[in-house]
């Protein structure tokens, strides 16, 4: 089964622009490159696959980017060059710029990479007009079911959504899967592992080993403080990120906290949601709210895989899930939150949608009291407002939001 992003990457394959695939480690970037490589082989499109964890290849391309030309299998046709872990090049921005400017008629590069590359300011500045970035997040619920070979359950979701009055004999099965998605998240290796104990071990490996590689590549000096900050953010899902408070708690400078927050964002583990406001005097809250990009990673950081209904933090976990749903659908940059100086708040605001959308996450529908949000509704009457609830569980869950 191929991820949904595969179709978009395939459509971009004939374009002159280089294709850059971003995302956290272990989200499936290499698998997507291999899927595209297989497509090229089937279509008899000249291609090569270069893994830059191969030190000899890395040294050769670092010594002279033009050494890449010698690996072309055909001198008559344009070659698609798949490059995995491109951040390991000593100067990936200059490498891509040189190849694009002088040899894009001969080579199309499709590259994946992780945090260190995208922190590099040269990547943002020097490759304008030469690349298109595709972001691979951890799996959404559709991919979650499809990776497990449960296409029938996803088709049931589609049927429920398309038929407003439809009832499902599989609604309880869908709840089991949904709660599994909330607890263990969307990393492909976690999804495809059938044993719960092994799912937890894989998440620990991602939390410890793979994130440690991000820490090393980003040049983080204090690994312990980084992890402590990560755990605090996991425990404070949806709360304001107060840098002064965090620096006092962890006994480090504000600049250190800000630097580590940037690393977490650039490694695609954290999203800092900015406030939305029209009335600066009454509404301006400068601090962002923090959400992790995967619930399984969050639960691993908290060492809490308690079933959803038994959790003390089920409201926070649900808000985290709603954020991920919105991020999958609209992208992280589209999401804001609304908060007044006296503490009135809407969890999620998408001002650029048509019509603009406001979403309040409440685990239990009984907590959905519209009067609490009347100030926002009066201030922004053009916004569509809705609650995102999980309980009571019914077919309406999939119609109203997913």
UniProtKB/TrEMBL annotation:
The lineage's top-level taxon is Bacteria
Gene Ontology molecular function, alphabetical: ATP binding
> What keywords is this UniProt entry annotated with?
ATP-binding, Nucleotide-binding
Q: Which SUPFAM superfamilies does the protein's record reference?
A: P-loop containing nucleoside triphosphate hydrolases
Query: Which Pfam families does the record match to this protein?
Result: AAA_14, DUF4143
Give a yes or no for keyword Metal-binding in this entry.
Answer: no
Query: Per the record's keyword annotation, is Cell inner membrane included, yes or no?
Result: no
* InterPro entries on file: AAA+_ATPase, AAA_14, DUF4143, P-loop_NTPase
Q: Which residues form the AAA+ ATPase domain?
A: 15-138
Output this protein's name: ATP-binding protein
